[in-house]
Protein 1
Amino acid sequence: MSSIAAYLFFAGQCEEAFTLYAEVLGAEIGERHTYGGSPMADQMPAEFADKIMHMELRLAGQSLMGSDTATPQPVRPMVGARVAVTLDKAEAAHTAFARLAEGGDVLMPIQPTFWSPAFGMLTDRFGVSWLVSGAE
């Protein structure tokens, strides 16, 4: 079965971010694996034991995946890409937008557009860029 999905990298906040995303978007957490619970646990620094090696968020039959990076390179802000989410109702989009914007940066306040009754752009406090829409 073929598929395509976005994979987000965090500097130690993957679980916090995905827990928020699940709550805000009405999604569910799928797979969740820590570095300490993996076959490579003994090869990782002790401070990585509780960090996320792989986590999956499921919404409407689609997945968004993420991880706490174990590489020495720092996580850089998303450039040239955004996670797009469309919720069933404009009211749900407004609520989700407000929660995702807490501690983040609003690029375009959520508002009616010619293609959606509710559309906005933001970067959340974890550095993830979002396009949030409401379908009705």
Note: The domain at 1-73 is CATH 3.10.180.10 (2,3-Dihydroxybiphenyl 1,2-Dioxygenase; domain 1).
Protein 2
Amino acid sequence: MNHLDLSFDGHFAQRASLPWWPWVGSQYVSSRKRTLVLGESVYDWSDTPRERELFQARYAERDGLRDTHTNHAMDFRRDTPYVRNVERAVFSTSKPADAMKHAFWTSVAYHNLVLEPLASLDVRPSLRQFRAGWAEALDLCILLDVRQVLVYGVGSVPALKLEATSRGLDCRIRKLRPQLNRCYPRVGTVTLGGSDIQLLFIRHPSTFFSWEKWSAIIGAHLSLG
């Protein structure tokens, strides 16, 4: 796992609310602006009892999410939309070089907002699940000294606002126009520890995601690549 920084694992281990540990790239600490890429959900992909057993075993382990992300992000020939489309948008090219992909994923932290597997792709996270996810994510932002967050999907915005209000945090999010792929980008900040963390919510990159359109939005609001 030479692409990972394991120095935070002792802190993760103390968090009973964290079912699986975030991916922290090996160059994250030294990156020019510490970035958390916040995915949404893990879905139960199993079709047979044996596959279900394997799925449950993976996500019962603290490294379950890391293993999944390694399999998809670091296998540069694997055309998984949620990683490849974001790389394309960040670097504004349809075919980023493998070295660019490696540099990106080793420079960021990656975590999933929803902290429990969902039964299928047809199931959407509830407000409760989103809010629990933001409660954990905000704590991780402090622990990892995050400066900016790229969020997959816009559905969790109300949950973030509720969680921020309950903590007495200043959280300001606004909608950008026009729509891109039938989705309004959201940008804003949340103030933690006296510092503003930049937030950008984009359409989930797994489907109907035009990287060319989103590249300009990402480039305008985050320091990446």
Note: Helices lie at 9-13, 49-59, 64-73, 81-91, 98-106, 127-143, 157-167, 211-221.
